[in-house]
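Incident log, entry 3
Record: F-box only protein 48 (136 residues)
Problem: checksum mismatch between cached and fresh output.
Input:
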Amino acid sequence: MFYSEKKKKENSGNFVNLVPPEVSYRIFSELDLQSLCSAAMTCKSWNQMIENCDHLWRSHCLTLRGVCQKEIDDDRGNGYSWKITLFRNYWKSKIKCAWLSGKYSNIDSSTDLPEKSMYPMDVTTWGEILDAELER
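Fresh output:
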């Protein structure tokens, strides 16, 4: 098989190589975060498309509950991409939501806290958590 025939066969089932980039971006933008990360690992062309589209990561970053706008603004001001900003704040968001929901309200001592219950957060975030605890 000639090189061009092999390449043609490889690309025939890959929609990223067949449709305009705007269509691929639209398709990928419909994926949840876990599916987007999985899609990025599917093949090189999908990975390049997803990795190079900051908009895909931006939408997921902005939907994270519990992340302060200041944290996002600081990361963006420091030159981090939306993808890096998302990954820097993902676990912070999960931890903050757990604290705000009262998951750790009835802990008797710090030794009873799960290892992943603490995460470096800004003063505003810890203030929100403290306010929520005081209301309980």
